[in-house]
Fold:
Amino acid sequence: MTRPYTLFCDSTCDLPEERLQKMDCRIIPLTFEIDGKPYTTADISMQEFYRRMREDASTKTSQISVGVCQDAFEEELKQGRDILYLTFSSGLSGTYNSALIAKDNLAEQYPDAKMVIVDSLSASSGEGLLLIYADMKKREGMDIDQLASWIEVNRYHICHVFTVDDLKYLFRGGRVSRASAIAGTVLGIKPVLSVDNDGHLIPQDKVRGRKQSINKLGQMIKERMGNCLNQIVTISHGDCIEDAKYAEKMLKEIFGEDTEVVISYTGPVIGAHSGPGTLALFFWGDYR
Structure:
């Protein structure tokens, strides 16, 4: 007899709470610090988080610990349920490795249980978009092995393109040089980036001006989308809702008016490194 299973993800999936409540999944939270004080997303609003960042508060993030993973898994295992955990990209975080260790720690105690850890190789609402599709496939009747295989094959179709408004946050995270950050600020240069098949951030271009950088994202989408129309697309933003609305209009022009567009904040774990003004677009395409 096939055991029921629980679909897990983590809070870096950056989906709106109202969307998550409609889905059959459990979210494990990552923690972050502002000026040395620990928080979860339940402790502070996104508007307040980005206001603090604009005031130059110090931010720091942490991966999910082995113990947190283990406790969350065991709650389901005790109820006779198996585990499928879709994790934050291993190219950006150690959360995937924490989950693997938690699985090994529980294996002897629950020998009949199946625990499958799948690296999303995605971030923010790209991870969230993959979770949306995974939840749909689970509801359609895929068992745990079928869904894990489906994710491993199709995660490379979840495309990420994004831009940031201020290079100083990428400089702090070691993503750009000091000279690039200073020049970008003086000249109004906005980097355009993507995520590769290994889940790493990859610079793609530099564009002068905010609106031009968003339009460049649209060009990149057209290059990657293939024949995909009328799909679900996701947007995450670092407290720049007007830019997100502009991007939503652009996405509907590209994919069709019937396309579902899910807009959310870029959460603190990603936002701490990309900063206020981050705008990221995620979609199903031919290649990353």
Notes: The longest strand covers residues 201-208. Residues 11 and 29 are 5 Å apart (CA to CA). The radius of gyration is 19 Å. The domain at 157-284 is CATH 3.30.1180.10 (Hypothetical Protein Tm841; Chain: A;domain 3).
